[in-house]
Amino acid sequence: MIRFYFHPTPNPAKIALLLEETGLPYEVVPVDTSKGEQHLPAFRAINPNGKLPAIVDTEGPGGRESRVFDSTAILLYLAEKTGKLLGTPEDRPELLSWLAFLGTGLGPFSGQAVHFQWAAPEGLDYARNRYRREAERHYQVLEDHLAGRDVIVGDSFTIADISAWGWIDRASRVLKGDGDPLAAYPNIKRWFAAIDSRPAVARARAVGQDHEFKKVQDEESRRHLFPSNYPPAA
């Protein structure tokens, strides 16, 4: 059994999709980041970085209970556990390269673009422009790569597609503006529509909907979500 520590944000969404695609049995454990539950000692024992997602595999290697944190690590771990969504052995170098690109580039820059466009105070135009332009640059790299391709790696749907789907799903917030956020990226738009039509996506989107997460972004939420912006208590 997989205990899946979840909050309805892009990186946990990737793991929800992988679990639904593979059919692994799992239990959702909601972690409300706006209430600061990611900072509780019980969760920090699973992910010392205090971020979502994380999993605990009660039937890990050697039959031992194993923790795994960071979405890319979880994608690799669960794909290897099931032997699914890894492409062919020949695809491995490309798969690792694109997972790194998505996990260290497109994802983080998209996240910072969202933060500075939607949450940061006014007067930070340099940072806002920097992260928005870098997000756009990463989108263009993926756009160019997908020309004439249906999937990111090899000839079949893999965890690279799942990893990209999680953030491209939030394009309207990353590429803040009017109209279709993917209009400038027709290859990504075509690829995303194909991925989004998979039956497992609808099931993944339903994960956690039976839990009422805090939606109001008040001062308490900001302190929990962006603790580095606040001095430690005296």
From TrEMBL:
Q: What residue stretches are annotated with the GST N-terminal domain? A: 1-86
CDD domains from the xrefs?
GST_N_Ure2p_like
| GST C-terminal domain boundaries | 88-225
Which Pfam families does this chain map to? GST_C_2, GST_N
Annotated Basic and acidic residues bias:
212-223
Report the domain of life of the source organism. Bacteria
Q: Where is this region: Disordered?
A: 212-234
Mind telling me what this protein is named? GST-like protein
Q: Which organism is it from?
A: Stella humosa
